[in-house]
Design the sequence.
């Protein structure tokens, strides 16, 4: 391709636009980060490169909240609120009962006092005591009608365009793309194919316990009001090991809570080439600007030589 | 293809051998079971069929022990024994210490008395308190040198040829093939690609708990001496739901302990076409003959219309 472009360029006196190799990452500004991504992918997919990675090892894992879509507020939190409102409409006594009252009125102080038990009660009420099929239907309904509270658009439009391009670019280079998120595994699976081109079996997330039951003569999976696995922080490498069984060659996360440090460290520990990407939310104009109080993620990126995305500088377009 | 064969057949007076559609299941005898498999696959992959299943839903799950390879004795049990022998060679005091003594001398009565705790101690000694990489290396070593105790061949040769053909046939028809076994997930992952063409991320099995650690400056997964999830019986649909998030269109297991009844029931509960296969070990000459005391698996097959493989009658070749 390159040869043909050069040759035709010489012939016509300029590079014809229709012959230029199309940019696989058009929503990224040209710069060090984009260049590092393209160079890495080229390096690990070139058969005679010392860093060549065989196709079966081309595993890429992506955090979701703040990495693939906006997390201000966290979308699954909006789902919980929407479900609680529906439940309160059907049973108004919930408006006077804690922890529902606090959740419905946005009483953050209540949850600071009441702690994890109150959160678990909300989780149980909105995520458990139903079949897997019922839960999936509720998530689908939420996404069909839900609108982002501040951006004012359907949730399909709060995914980051540059990151969706990156997923497609990696897949075009025979990477298998995975989500590895602290969010609920069954929540994300409903939309992962439509939003990101990632099938449900390539989604790793936090889970509640389930059991196999036969109900009205039909065998199904029942969702129990009990936490299974927390797929955040050091839970992420554990989740990757459980679901994939090999270290990711490419891992991407974002700063906010230090949630992706362990996953990126685990990826970097693989023998052979690997790439770590950390998104810095520094664009208050086009998205949101927020930092960690201890700056742990950006410090780890600095120490370990991870590639930092500045949304402000690296992304031509955000959504 | 069919048209060309008929046409050439007419021309030459017989169907030329080189034009005959090649048999995708040559180790299966022609008969009801083989015919049912081929008809089902044709039905769900024909776009204008009412039973058409889109590629993304073509999930096939296979039990391993007794379904993909011989389970007399269970291979992972032989791994435990081999590890214990190595450990006893390094530390002869194990020969006088329970439960190691009982395991090393084949004292089945001891385990009937000592129960699950003794089994867990053996599991901890052979499967835990090491990194994931160390465990994988030990499994690899076992398969490099191990020989089946009664068949006298390497374990590569105790896989069932008809079932490996079936896996390949399904993949050729764009099914994604998975293992869903009561065996250890990390044990099977070491050989799943080589033995069955199934990558590690498509293996579901029983697991012990793990944690993420940083050891000598290297981040890794540490295996804890504690059971995580038991992927047998009703644990199988739970495992499929956790790892795949959708019901299998095709599910295969075998009779011995009732271990696959729940998985096959779960598969059959999907809306739309599905296929359940249950292997009956009825061939004492070429393999092993064994039945369940309560006949539960074969009874369930009868009640639910599952397809039963008679090894004696349906398989032209076993290994």
Sequence:
């Amino acid at each position: 391709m390159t040869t043909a472009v050069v040759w035709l360029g010489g012939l016509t006196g300029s590079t014809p636009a229709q012959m230029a190799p199309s940019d696989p990452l058009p929503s990224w500004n040209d710069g060090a980060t984009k260049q590092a991504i393209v160079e890495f992918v080229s390096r690990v997919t070139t058969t005679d490169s010392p860093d060549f990675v065989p196709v079966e090892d081309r595993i890429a894992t992506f955090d979701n909240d703040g990495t693939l879509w906006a997390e201000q507020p966290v979308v699954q939190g909006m789902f919980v609120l929407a479900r609680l409102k529906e439940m309160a409409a059907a049973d108004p006594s919930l408006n006077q009962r804690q922890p529902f009252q606090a959740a419905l009125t946005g009483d953050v102080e209540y949850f600071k006092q009441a702690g994890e038990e109150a959160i678990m009660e909300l989780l149980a009420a909105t995520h458990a005591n139903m079949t897997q099929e019922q839960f999936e239907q509720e998530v689908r309904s939420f996404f069909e009608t839900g609108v982002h509270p501040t951006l004012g658009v359907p949730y399909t439009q709060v995914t980051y365009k540059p990151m969706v391009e990156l997923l497609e670019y990696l897949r075009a280079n025979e990477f298998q793309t995975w989500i590895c998120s602290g969010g609920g595994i069954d929540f994300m699976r409903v939309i992962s194919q439509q939003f990101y081109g990632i099938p449900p079996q390539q989604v790793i997330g936090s889970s509640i316990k389930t059991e196999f039951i036969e109900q009205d003569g039909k065998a199904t999976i029942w969702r129990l009001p009990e936490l299974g696995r927390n797929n955040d922080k050091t839970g992420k490498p554990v989740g990757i090991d459980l679901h994939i069984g090999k270290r990711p060659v490419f891992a991407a996360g974002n700063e906010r809570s230090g949630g992706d440090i362990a996953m990126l460290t685990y990826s970097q520990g693989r023998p052979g080439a690997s790439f770590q990407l950390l998104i810095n939310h520094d664009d208050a104009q086009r998205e949101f600007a927020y930092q960690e109080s201890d700056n742990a993620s950006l410090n780890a990126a600095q120490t370990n030589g991870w590639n930092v995305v500045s949304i402000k500088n690296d992304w031509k377009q955000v959504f």
In short: Chain A has two domains: 26-72+152-314, 76-145.
